[in-house]
Amino acid sequence: FTVEEKTEEELAAISSAMDFIASFPGTILSLGCPTDHRGIGDTKAIEIAGRIFNRAGEIGKTRNVPVAFHPSSHHGSVVVTRPQYEAMMAATDPSLVKWVPDTGHIIRGAQNIPETLSLFRERIAYVHLKDASSDGVWRMMGAGDCDIPGVIAHLHDKLGFDGWLIGEEES
């Protein structure tokens, strides 16, 4: 989602995916994390991805398919740290683009999970529960630095979130 010359191609693929999932009520189209493998820099990559995500959100509105993005901490990802999260949130329209927080990737980005969830709570579409250690190593759920019961309690009790929680094993 960061190659400007491929924007229309990306949007055509997104539109095609929406055509398929629109027949499944309640489905959310989750878009992956933008990456920079060409050396354009985080700021430019986030700017391009933000435009694509917003346009995807506009397409989704016409088809009643909500759109969200899923940040990750994999090599080349440009939405890993708090400043990058803030930049992506600023680059996307909250009425068009939601967010799929992932606890493991939040840990790997050296962020505080409850603080990050609280900061962007109005954007949460659903949550990936995953575990990692603060040194960036994926761990079995419950064996890393994610206080999973604490995260669930925070989401429910503090943020009033009662949506989908998806347990994801990545170790």
Describe what you observe in this structure:
Helix 2 crosses helix 3. The chain has helices at residues 7-21, 42-63, 82-91, 103-108, 113-119, 148-158, and strands at 29-31, 67-69, 97-99, 127-129, 131-132, 138-139, 165-167. By secondary structure, it is α/β, with parallel strands linked by helices.
With strands numbered from the N-terminus, the spatial order across the biggest sheet is 1-2-3
The secondary structure category is alpha/beta
Annotation, overall tally of beta strands: 7
Helix % is 40-55%
Euclidean distance between termini CA atoms:
26 Å
Helix and strand element order: HEHEHEHHEEEHE
Overall pLDDT: 96
- Tell me the β content: 5-15%
Taking the sheet with the most strands, its summary is: 3 strands, parallel
- What is the helix tally? 6
Radius of gyration: 16 Å
Label the overall shape: globular
Low-confidence stretches: none
